[in-house]
Amino acid sequence: MSERASSPRRGGRPPRGDAVIERAFALLATFDSGHPAQSLADLARRSGIPRSSALRLARTLIGVGALERLDDGRFVVGVRLLEIASLAPRGHGLRAVAMPHMEDLFHVTRQHVLLAVREGDEALLVERLSARDASPARYRVGGRLPLTSTGVGLVLLAHAPADLQEQVVAAYRPDVRRGDDIDTPEDLRRTLAEIRRGGYALGRQTRPWAMGTVAAPVHGPGGVVAALSIVMPSAELDGSAYGPAVQAAARAISRRMVAVPLPEELLPPPRG
Q: What is the pTM of this model?
């Protein structure tokens, strides 16, 4: 999963013309799974906002419930953000439609079942079901995953606008830390074509532990709106067995997505 933090701007001052709301979001964007609680110094350093300005923003965000402050003085994300985020159509609405079919797939595999949407050049995880004894996984709901080394990411990339595909393929370099099984940009281009032909993605990683994934696209009125996958130890992954199961679940979700009127926001971003 990609965990990105903004680097400080030169001189420690925001560029002229920065809107307050943009700076507030820059402050909120410093929180991730590796930094769930931060000091004021952390917020200033990771956002690139001067400490005095960061404190004023943090106090304002506390006032509206977007941040909370712990007894030790550190800041954490407030529950008001969770309340608002739960209303996002591409998150909550999609989850409501997909959940019964995800549960069916979960009971068959007893591993991880993931549902993700594309957000720019990353995949955003909107739901995850996992058994207590499932293989380790670092994916979290609300977390971002790379398009090139996850099953859901590859499916979303395979159905993304052509210009984004070309941009990602041209910049692709395998990550040896994950043991990616796609070695070159040409391999990635070929893999995306195979996903479009076959209807699902099959992938494996060897680091930090051996894992395999099968993912399939979820269609809506305007095209592919999400990707569904299972993740399990690669030794247990049988693409010929699990591929059809994931495809069947994704098709069932797709039928609901097409049949049930949904907000326009659920549709994928415009092409181009």
A: 0.66
